[in-house]
């Protein structure tokens, strides 16, 4: 139902009629042939994989970027001296220079990754686009979506062989890594990681409770984030 309604809205837009008039007829074929080029079709993660496959396919068809710009080598040293909001804007404009469509307007957000050195306290930030957030499930009873979001945004220790090079110390140091949302998409897709990362993978059948309304995401946003979330989607279930 969601795909059908969303497709109708796209088709009714004037820009779609003028730029991609053949998509209306290609779409049923696009969906029907999905299993063919996708060997992993049939596994438990089909809902998330199909949604990503569908959205990326639509995005490619309606991408406003028709001519790829010449690659520019970023000045990372200069960017690191900027405030997080300015730096995030540069990263976002760099992404839109390659991928810019109504699909991106609705579904793509920006994630901020923060590395902090435990020796000198130096922080470095990077910004990456995301189409959905894959949330880990805590190993406890009575889990809700807030628990999953808090685990996703909690600090992770990087020690031993995982120690990164501190930008100030210039040597490998024990650091902490954390994620926060810099830019919310208008429709946020949350994917629950129900498979363990252990050697013998097993599916977690634990029920995860989530609110139908009033899911406050401010706690998981970066300090410089602009909060514009309209809809939250769990896998392929749309929440009104």
Strand content: 15-25%
Based on secondary structure, the structural category is alpha/beta
Question: From the 3D coordinates, which CATH architecture of the largest domain would you assign?
Answer: Alpha-Beta Complex
Radius of gyration from CA coordinates: 20 Å
Distance between the termini: 13 Å
Number of strands: 11
The biggest sheet amounts to: 5 strands, mixed
EC number: 3.4.19.12
Keywords: Hydrolase, Signal
Pfam family, one: UCH
GO molecular function: cysteine-type deubiquitinase activity
Topology at a glance:
Elements: H1 2-12, H2 14-19, H3 23-32, H4 46-62, H5 76-79, H6 84-96, H7 102-107, E1 109-117, E2 123-130, E3 133-136, E4 143-144, H8 145-153, E5 156-158, E6 175-183, E7 187-193, E8 208-209, E9 221-226, E10 231-234, E11 237-238
Parallel strand pairs: 3-7, 4-8, 6-9, 7-10
Antiparallel strand pairs: 1-2, 1-6, 5-6, 10-11
